[in-house]
Design brief:
Alpha-Beta Plaits, 177 residues, five-stranded antiparallel β-sheet, 6 helices, single chain, alpha+beta
């Protein structure tokens, strides 16, 4: 690799370190090509990616970046997994490490915070962006669906004011009439 190619790799890695929500560093010694392709596919499905680069070039790319302290993790055969979603890459890596003992998470970075193995595990246990959005939408929609259910119950009560035993159902508020 000549100097121009190395500079290009350093620039690409610098972009990864700046724009990613999370970067996970792992050892991959002994993994087959098929296993690495499987990891790449799983990360691609969640909007993430995998990058193998020389540790020296990655350390140069980290200089001046918020997560510069992550350079201490870059020893041995390392692979960088990253995603814009601050949780996605950590979730995929954590799940993959459980099924493949040759993929060992060392740590990572989230913004300017350097994470150890436990930190990556903690990030992986957090809900993803999509899950958070779904929870917020359900919270916003719940009062509306409760009102709709009460109004629907009123109309149903007007059609059938007594149950099969000849008694009022007791579930209808007094204002339904």
């Amino acid at each position: 690799m000549d100097r121009a190619q190395k500079e290009k790799v350093v620039d690409e890695l610098g972009q990864i370190f700046e724009s990613s929500g999370v970067v996970v560093v792992a050892h991959y010694t002994g993994m087959t090509v098929a296993q690495m392709q499987d990891l790449r596919a799983k990360l691609r499905d969640v909007g993430g990616s995998v990058r193998v680069a020389k540790n020296t070039l990655a350390k140069i790319a980290l200089e001046g970046k918020p997560a510069a302290k992550m350079g201490d993790l870059l020893t041995g055969m390392t692979v960088l997994s990253f995603s814009e979603d601050p949780v996605a890459a950590a979730k995929v890596c954590e799940a993959y490490a459980k099924t493949n003992d040759k993929f060992v998470i060392i740590g990572g970075a989230m913004g300017d915070t350097v994470l150890d193995q436990a930190g990556v595990k903690a990030v992986a246990s957090m809900p993803s962006r999509e899950e958070l959005i779904a929870q917020i939408v359900s919270c916003i929609g719940a009062p509306g669906s409760n009102i709709a259910g009460a109004i629907g119950a009123c109309f149903e009560h007007r059609k059938h004011p007594v149950d099969h035993r000849g008694k009022g159902c007791g579930l209808i508020p007094a204002w339904c009439g």
